[in-house]
Amino acid sequence: xxxxxxxxxxxxxxxxxxxxxxxxxxxxxxxxxxxxxxxxxxxxxxxxxxxxxxxxxxxxxxxxxxxxxxxxxxxxxxxxxxxxxxxxxxxxxxxxxxxxxxxxxxxxxxxxxxxxxxxxxxxxxxxxxxxxxxxxxxxxxxxxxxxxxxxxxxxxxxxxxxxxxxxxxxxxxxxxxxxxxxxxxxxxxxxxxxxxxxxxxxxxxxxxxxxxxxxxxxxxxxxxxxxxxxxxxxxxxxxxxxxxxxxxxxxxxxxxxxxxxxxxxxxxxxxxxxxxxxxxxxxxxxxxxxxxxxxxxxxxxxxxxxxxxxxxxxxxxxxxxxxxxxxxxxxxxxxxxxxxxxxxxxxxxxxxxxxxxxxxxxxxxxxxxxxxxxxxxxxxxxxxxxxxxxxxxxxxxxxxxxxxx
Length: 405
Fold this sequence. Notes:
Rossmann fold, about 20% strand, 6-stranded mixed β-sheet, 11 helices
């Protein structure tokens, strides 16, 4: 079978996390630094549905991030941290209902979630309504820190424009000038297509056609046929969720790589397995792979994740949850409070050390600037999947997205 030795890589998956700082006493929150009540972190994310795997990675990372930042005590400012998780099933209405339950019944101090961009967008108005800080990760749609931004919104996760800034110039320079984009038919896919189109055109290429398939699609044959008939040089795939396994399997079966070049984001480990050995040599961008990040925080994450999860390493979205957990703890320490206004002041411009190195919340839009990666898929002994091997780490400044709020 033909290897993807010339394939590029465009960011694929996404998902989103929410942190809400506790409101001041005037809005009903328990924010006094002298309180001994537990700090409650309410998580709204996908524990079922197409993005279940991403949600679980996020949750595992969040718990480990809190553990790391508190030195294993799960306590900050003399208060224990409790994590309460609700399943949004990837549905915005369900996410709103579960968030209100956490806010009104459980009286959580902080909200965190979701793996789904549409759910994350639906939760943003609740940040203003309840005066809670929301830290989003891993949902990647630009609108979260763009046109839907409000002052309570912060994001540790990368956005789709950061993906595009990492991969578009590489794709235009090395793969071709004309692109066909296949993405899921919901907010993540539409935002991804817009971000990549802008970045490709800025780099001297063009997108000749875009197609959006339902998130639960299993037969991608019609879309792949359109791609090969479009006159494009390169197929861009940005996908999120379980359907990605079927998509990449069909790309292999239909031998699309023999008809045009392919660029896609390196997915989680399950997604890499689905791509098959024909993806050997694929080179492009990714938001995170545990073997590519070189820093003490990531070393700790890898070691402790393997201890807690039967030898399994952290995955694509574990890193975002881990960094969100650290940011929650560090913001509370700096503010010496869970009061929302104090947390906002603490977080704006703040840098934290996370799974990929230094993350900095840009003051203008609260988007975390962070390292990104170009990697190459290679066969290695001892692995049952193709291993993303570091080609280049790009700095937070190199991949900084435009301010869109």
